[in-house]
Design a protein that fits this description.
Layout: H1 3-18, H2 24-35, H3 39-42, H4 47-66, H5 75-84, E1 88-93, H6 96-111, E2 115-120, E3 127-128, H7 135-139, H8 141-146, E4 150-155, H9 157-160, H10 163-179, E5 185-190, H11 201-207, E6 211-214, H12 220-232, H13 235-241, H14 274-277, H15 305-313, E7 319-323, H16 330-343, E8 347-352, H17 364-378, H18 385-388, H19 395-410, E9 415-420, H20 423-426, H21 429-445, H22 453-456, E10 459-465, E11 484-487, H23 493-500, H24 509-519, H25 523-534, H26 540-546, H27 555-566, H28 569-580, H29 589-597, E12 601-604, E13 607-610, H30 613-622
Parallel strand pairs: 1-2, 1-4, 4-5, 5-6, 7-10, 7-11, 8-9, 9-10
Antiparallel strand pairs: 2-3, 12-13
Length: about 625
Amino acid sequence: MDVEKALEFVDQRLYAKTGKYLNDTEREVFIGSWRGDTYQEIYPYNPQYVEKTLAYRLWGKLSDVLGEKVTKKKIKGIVERAWQRQQQVFVSYRGQAAAIAATTLMMKLQALGHAVFIHDLNENVPLDAADAVSQAESAASMPRLQRCDCFILLLSLQAAVSEMLIEQLRCLRQGVERTGSPPPIRVVMALEPIDPLQLSHDLRNYLTGAYHWAWKPEAMAETLKRLQIILEQDIAALAMQSLPCLTFPDELFEVASEAGSSLTETETLAAASPSAVHPLPDAEPEIPSGLVHLKSQVYVERTPVERQCYEEIGRSGALIRIKAPRQMGKTSLMARILRHAHEQDYRAIPVSFQHADRATFKDLGNLLRWFCAIVARRLRLPHRLNDYWEDTFGSKDNCTSFFQDYLLPAIEQPLVLGLDEVDEVFRYPTIADDFFGLLRAWYEEANYGSGDSEIWERLRLVVVHSTEVYLPLDVNQSPFNVGLPIELKEFTPAQVTDLVSRYPLSLTPDDIATLMTLVGGHPYLLQLALYYLAQQQLTLKELSATGPTEAGIYGDHLRRHLATLEQTPALARAYRAVLDAAQPLQLGSEQTFKLHSLGLVHLQGNGVVPSFELYRRYFSDRLHIP
């Protein structure tokens, strides 16, 4: 480690800690001491003053900063050890302006002695902070993400709608769960005003609790000071800084949020205009970001699905199970079912299992206690778990008692629970069977006609999931073969025409047919195309040409699917065979199930074909099997 690098490292660490840099004389003392010079050689005019006063104070300041007692003889070893203890920082961004910010931040953090890795979400290969990354290094990018000490997101509108960002955060969480290591510190810096409603349900969940502030290039010194305090986890300094953490309303699609209640400063990334929150009939087209909000102009009803769900939720002890691949509108439909229930004077609350910590799934008892507590909290009731949880009885019996003897009697109206992202439970087979068996038992209790049935008739369940995962759930205990099944399909040509009519576009029937050839009736992919067409950022001809490439508007979506396939070689080989087949290909039942659950194939008889041209063209070119 050369003296210039050491001096810059120490100077930046000192400023981050104290807000002051080394003065000229202190810099001379540091450089001379590093080189092994005597105080006489460093400052021949008054060496005693330097040794007894100036150097004494300097070593004291550096001791506080570097965490070891610094002396003239020890300075070199202590600085080098501090350099080796540097934090691993992962910076994620998307867009040209964000790239400049990421590069600037990288250089500043490196000067503070941290190892920095930056990743452009538009790129397949994360770029190393210092050098161009080799092929071997790029293959290790995900482990680098999962072992980072701090994850920094430079949040732009482009990043806010990135599927690769969601995948990145999901992998980050799964790495923590798999290794049991402490979760990395999360920091979000907004590069532009962003309304929380522009963030998807998944993204809000992953970012809740992260430190956040606005990115201001002119305030770089303050940003570095904050980051250094966060990285060092200096409790006293953190308390003095009172750094804000991201919070959001419990659920942005709850009916209560429609009443016009304003968000507090800590609940927003930036102020937004009313039209950005609730689009008016003539509002600008919305960037698709997952949940289609209740007042959105682009929600298309899938007749008769909504009517069936509204009728079913009015029945005593109802159970509705909504299944579809990602981005097909499951949560948007659930939000409308809850709104309808609210209009009938029911208590209607959403519960997302993505909000549960890893420790929640440690065993069935932990999961059921969390479930009871979160429902009580959403109902604004004291949780009172200890009053209904006895070791003598099993956790399923305790949970049942909590609902039967406390929660349901405490409210006069029927209670509708929207259980979103129950896929999280499928990841824990040892508890999935018991948990879903309990839901099935409650559903059946309402239909027994026994003395307890009346109380259970008040409970109505809406269960939302992307896939059942290939788990052998007991057919007599599973809730996935009772109640009203809703499997959301792609939009029909008539529904696509309806969707197109909600945008300021003049597409002919042939244009719509061309669009559907590319992306079928996939709601999210259609809305993304229509947004860019309405903004006149590309033409239909350009969309057809660039859509199945990583440079096109679907690059993010396609890379996410490619990453999923590459992480599962057997599934990748099966899909490669489907792409190469000239006719529907018959696969094993598990492979068919998984590819269909991902939305990558359509079923034709006993065989499968690629869902649409977008996937066929992209994966034929990009999916390589060793």
